[in-house]
Amino acid sequence: MNSTEYVEQGIKIENGKGRTGFEQAGFQLISMAITIGISLVAGSITGLLLRLPLFEQLSEDVEMFDDEAQWVTPDDYALKLTFATPYSDQDKRADENQAKNEDSKV
Fold first, then answer.
1. Is 106 helix (H, G, I), strand (E, B) or coil?
2. In this predicted model, what pLDDT tens digit does every residue of 64-96 receive, in sequence order?
3. Are 92 and 98 contacting, i.e. CB atoms less than 8 angstroms apart?
């Protein structure tokens, strides 16, 4: 049964727990603040735990974007992410040479 059917049958529906809209908004804002607070504390604890020497630390910024450090990748895997470091002309030439070598193999 939906709310329209309740109204059609003359059944009175009260707002949740007798709160006004303003009071309900206040409860929801407090709930949201508590949720965000819990997530910030939990995230901070997780970040501190991951800094423990028990976990392998990445040595360089470039390594953070290298899948081969943490995953088994295929031999022909050659994704070059350029947002970690500036993309130089030397990198462009290296990519072009690699593409030419791959084209010549086919």
1. coil
2. 666 666 677 677 766 665 555 555 666 777 777
3. no
Min mean pLDDT across 33-42, 64-73, 96-105 is at: 64-73
3-state secondary structure of 68: helix
- Evaluate the CA torsion angle 29, 30, 35, 40 in order and state its sign: positive
Angle (CA) 44-49-50 rounded to 5° is 100
Angle at 24 between CA 19 and CA 27, to 5 degrees: 120
Q: Give me 21's structure tokens.
A: 């809209």
Locate tokens 């974007």: which residue?
65
Which has the closest alpha carbon to 82: 62, 101, 67?
62
